[in-house]
Amino acid sequence: MVDDRLNRHDLTDSEWALVEPLLPAHPRQGHRWNDHRVVINGIFFRTRAGCPWRDLPVEYGNWKTVYNRHRRW
């Protein structure tokens, strides 16, 4: 059985379809960004939980990546 306690508030497919076109494309130079959807879900989790960035669960990727993207956007 899959434990969905972390992802029950993540973006649904229909919500993601509305948000995805508004996000920047991958840069032409350098490495590709991590998946925008995972990063956004990480930002939302941190906002809901009120936890420090370093306590972000690993399911949302590296906390520093999520933090940097949040700051950039």
Structure description:
This protein is mainly alpha-helical and 73 residues long. Helix content is 42%, strand content 0%. It starts with 12 loop residues before the first helix and ends with a helix. The relative contact order is 0.16.
pLDDT below 50 for ≥5 consecutive residues: which ranges? none
Structural class: mainly alpha
Percent in helix: 40-55%
What overall form do the CA principal axes indicate?
globular
Relative strand content: under 5%
Summarize it:
The chain is mostly helical and 73 residues long. Helix content is 42%, strand content 0%. Helix 2 packs across helix 3.
Kindly list the characteristics that best describe this protein.
73 residues; mainly alpha
Give me the secondary-structure topology.
Blueprint lengths: L12 H7 L16 H14 L13 H10 L1
Helix pairs in contact: 2-3
